[in-house]
Amino acid sequence: xxxxxxxxxxxxxxxxxxxxxxxxxxxxxxxxxxxxxxxxxxxxxxxxxxxxxxxxxxxxxxxxxxxxxxxxxxxxxxxxxxxxxxxxxxxxxxxxxxxxxxxxxxxxxxxxxxxxxxxxxxxxxxxxxxxxxxxxxxxxxxxxxxxxxxxxxxxxxxxxxxxxxxxxxxxxxxxxxxxxxxxxxxxxxxxxxxxxxxxxxxxxxxxxxxxxxxxxxxxxxxxxxxxxxxxxxxxxxxxxxxxxxxxxxxxxxxxxxxxxxxxxxxxxxxxxxxxxxxxxxxxxxxxxxxxxxxxxxxxxxxxxxxxxxxxxxxxxxxxxxxxxxxxxxxxxxxxxxxxxxxxxxxxxxxxxxxxxxxxxxxxxxxxxxxxxxxxxxxxx
Length: 380
Prior knowledge:
alpha/beta; Immunoglobulin-like; 4-stranded antiparallel β-sheet
């Protein structure tokens, strides 16, 4: 009942007692009026702004199927013994909860204990917990005030990581059994000296001043490439995937490669800086994969858009289900400009994709299930 309803009840009760000539009715009506007035005054003092909340999380980056412990801490001054307080955390759909996401209290003595619950995330993606809702009011519910705090936190859920085994890392290129080409990781913008000319060196590599000084033909020596050795390139065009299950299997492949191969240091325009630890590298890549979403942009358009971000002569690990002719042409052009191309065909019915990849000289592999990731191996 609101304040007006309590007032009407008090007046009607008192009027009924007066008509019937009974003092009891008049007394009850007066009592109603006094209680309503008291609750109105108490409710006017209730102020949710006096309470502050803070959310503590066990972890913010979790694998699909795992959980994080969420604790809501409360601080501030309550409104006294005649005021109720309800604190409730908002949880997005798709999150399984163990425990209570809220707390109700009359008075404020036990509010500072806060509350906690366990949130489990079954699917890959970005989830936001919060905001926290704080509601206060008098015991009769005559006046209620509600405030939403700005306390919200993002939880990133990456797909399951499957060990890829040893078959995929047999050379300094991410895949394949070819001999290492050390020059593939040299950066021509970082000369560090000269060495003797070797058969196969390009004429533009000849170091003419050093040749003149030594009397022998010398070639320029370059430092290692400043960019990452490998770059994961997933196809995010939804129409190129047969269904959601295949798309998520592709994301699982990306996560498994990001963790299993130390050469991988970039994905979807996320480039890592030099000197980061291996743990930081993995977490950054997995966080990026957790946020990836499918869209309408074609794979060929996305390749052209991301092309400036690909480090010089890095190997591109392409994760696709369907590879159309336009995307294959862009990959072929990237290969002609010095990039290595390794393609993972994900899901059933990928024979055409593998054929197009092989036609442009790419290394190819097929993955039809999570178990297939364990034996991931590329061939030409």
